[in-house]
Amino acid sequence: MHPSDSPDSSAETALAPETDAIARPTNRSVLLFTPDDSLPPSLESHLESESGLEVSNATSTGAVLQRLEATDCLVLVADETENAGETTTASVDVLDRLRNYAPAFPVVVVTTDPDSETATELATAAHTQRWTVHVPISAHDESADLERIGQRVTDLVDHHRLDGIVSRSLAAVELTEEPLAIVAPDGTFEHVTRRYTMQFGYSPSELEGQPWQTCFSDETVSHLESTAIATVTDGWRWTGHCTGREKSGEPVPVHIRLGGLEDGSLIFVATERDGDSEQSASTDAGSEPR
Fold it and tell me: Going edge to edge, which strands form the sheet with 238-245?
């Protein structure tokens, strides 16, 4: 016998409600900085006219740090001249100082000489720092290079804003005290609230990255995979009673609400049921732990 479903578990009468619209600012402000004040021709005008960005210039590292709160992204143009060792070093130093001050601030680094030591250092920084993007340019196709810089700035700012929304949303979820878990498309827990983990005897760090099946009995897993997840994949929400499994291996009766996201992620809301409910609703409480 399978864990029993609530009357609306096969498919609710309406599709899951659409996500509420999020008001996002459409303007994007950019701070341009070149340590030796030698800005590539047309860069500022292109970013303003073609990419629709609000552009301003900084004349010193101190000015950059002071203006971060009023700016969405820094475009750092490295000097690549043969005899400008000190200025080239300054380009790397600016990024290092900024990262110590604001490790999650969006930075687009522009280099013009792929063989320079500075370009190598900044490219390495872009690989190791999440919010740093490296855009190498040449004199062969200025128009395409300028367009690429503008697109990288736009993408990075939008990604940074979305990341902030997600972080605030997760914080809000914690405050609501919902026993909620977000399962990534690969089937592992991506985020779990403390209330969700406490029901199964885990801490959040113990469950994050683990398969969602960790918290359920074998029979429940089979039922959820064949019925509930299939229902969610078709665009519906699913609710039902089933048997969870604590860290100790003991069964725990739970009521599950299950929904899905467009990228294949799953949202589990698990509410523990009392013993009386278990007698009539859960049929596999005696299953062996997985």
Answer: 189-192, 180-183, 266-272, 251-260, 238-245
Strand 180-183 to strand 266-272: parallel, antiparallel, or no bridges (unpaired)?
Answer: antiparallel
The contacts of residue 226 (CB under 8 Å, 6+ apart) are none
Instruction: Please report which residue ranges of 39-116 form alpha helices under DSSP H.
Output: 43-49, 61-66, 85-101
Residue 69 pLDDT > 60: yes
- pLDDT tens-digit series, residues 105-154: 999 999 877 777 888 888 888 888 889 999 988 766 777 888 888 899 99
Fold of 178-281: Beta-Lactamase (3.30.450)
Amino acid at 103: P
What class, spelled out in words, does domain 34-170 have in CATH?
alpha beta
In the chain, which segments carry CATH 3.40.50.2300? 34-170
pTM across the whole model: 0.56
User: Crossing angle for the helix pair 85-101 and 117-128, nearest 10 degrees?
Assistant: 10
**For tokens 């609400």, what's the residue?**
257
Q: How many other C-beta atoms can be found within 10 angstroms of the C-beta atom of residue 44?
A: 17
